[in-house]
Design a protein that fits this description.
By secondary structure, the protein is an all-alpha fold. It is 77% helix and 0% strand. Helix 4 (46-72) packs parallel to helix 6. The longest helix has 27 residues, at 46-72. The radius of gyration is 19 Å and the shape is flat. The two termini are 36 Å apart. The mean pLDDT is 83.
Length: 167
């Protein structure tokens, strides 16, 4: 099965995927209600929060990456955006993370630092690939390689800083 066949199947049968993505923020809300009020009570639920974060972040990060690729490199029109496969995972991820953030800081959730680092790496690589695509390096290169490396490191640090300020 190819990725295109998977998306076609989800588009033809959207109910299970949409139900899964819609239930994640609801599960986060219910978990917030059940987890208690004191710090020790809340920290007992951190692995449940971890499962919710990863269950929402994996499709969400994939959808963000796919959208960046389709809009920046494939020049897809916004009018042909598939709401189930390209928008709903992002909306579900943002809602779930926002609800979880209301109850527990992300630094207490196991594995969240690795997830944010992975997202930073993906964003930096897409940024560099887009820059290389727009600069047309295959013609003539007037920029020294050391400037490219410094630009990549600065882009990585900027994205990492923006991510920490976002959540």
């Amino acid at each position: 099965m190819t990725l295109q066949e998977l998306f076609r199947y989800i588009s033809q049968n959207p109910a299970p995927f949409a139900l899964f993505l819609s239930c994640l923020p609801l599960l986060a809300l219910v978990t917030n209600l059940w987890s208690g009020q004191t710090a020790p009570e809340i920290l007992r639920w951190r692995y449940v929060y971890m499962g919710l974060v990863f269950a929402s972040a994996i499709p969400g990060v994939f959808a963000v990456t796919l959208n960046l690729y389709l809009f920046l490199f494939e020049r897809q029109s916004i009018w042909s955006l598939n709401l189930i496969t390209q928008f709903l995972p992002i909306l579900s991820m943002v809602a779930t993370l926002w609800i979880i953030r209301q109850k527990i800081p992300f630094e207490h959730i196991p594995g969240f630092g690795k997830l944010s680092g992975f997202l930073t790496l993906i964003a930096a690589l897409i940024g560099v690939l887009f820059l290389l695509d727009r600069l047309h390096f295959y013609a003539v290169i007037y920029i020294p390689f050391s400037y490219l490396v410094m630009g990549f490191v600065l882009l990585l640090l900027l994205i990492r800083f923006a991510w920490t300020k976002l959540f």
